[in-house]
Amino acid sequence: MKKNLVGALLMLILFSISSFASEITISCAASLKEVIEELSDKFNKENKKIKVNVNLGGSGALKNQIIAGAPVDLVFFASQKDLTDLSEKGFVEKDYQKNMLKNRLVIAGRTQIQSLDKLLGYKTAIGIPETVPAGRYAKEVLTKSKLWDEIHKDLVFTRDVRSAAQYVDLYEVDFSFIYKTDVTMLKNSDIVFTVPEELHSPIIYSYGIVKDRASTDVVKFYNFLNSEYAKKIYEKYNFELVE
Hints:
Shape: globular
Order of helices and strands: HEHEHEHEEEHHEHEEEHHE
Number of helices: 9
CATH topology of the largest domain: D-Maltodextrin-Binding Protein, domain 2
């Protein structure tokens, strides 16, 4: 009787261990919300013992969290610069980092404009340039266009690019600098101007594995994000692939 009880207990323990899901945490740019959620769901269904947790925010803020020691396995930034900064500081595995996607910077609003100087005198939302890549690109654009000093007083700074999109859609500002891929979330506004690419740094999305986090499961998810299936999802949400 005792032998049977011990055996049953052992089987229960082994079953519990074998069914336990390992967890992966990925920190992603807010503009990747729908993409990463769809890809994570797909990966979870195909790998039932691996759970993917998603942490969204501005890429610069997410980078600072990694430097501060946040328990994150992978990062997916809307800025090649932020991944390069982490890599140069030794926070990213050198063999597991890649430039993946391209995006376009646009202005959302309710009135079409033909030039950037038409923003003067209107409330315009941009991400905080120090922590939000879209805000950094927007500042580059306004600085190169010699509008930054004049327009600065009318800018509303947001914690990420999705917040900037919400501001214009909720009529809290007149215009917002957002990504082309964010337009799908707009209900009360639309793209009113596409920013010339020569006015800002290339918008390259890069991802990688955090230093010392390259476990078998993490590498499996890293490879999945570069799979043919994943590439179709990126294109579904209007991202361009880096060749």
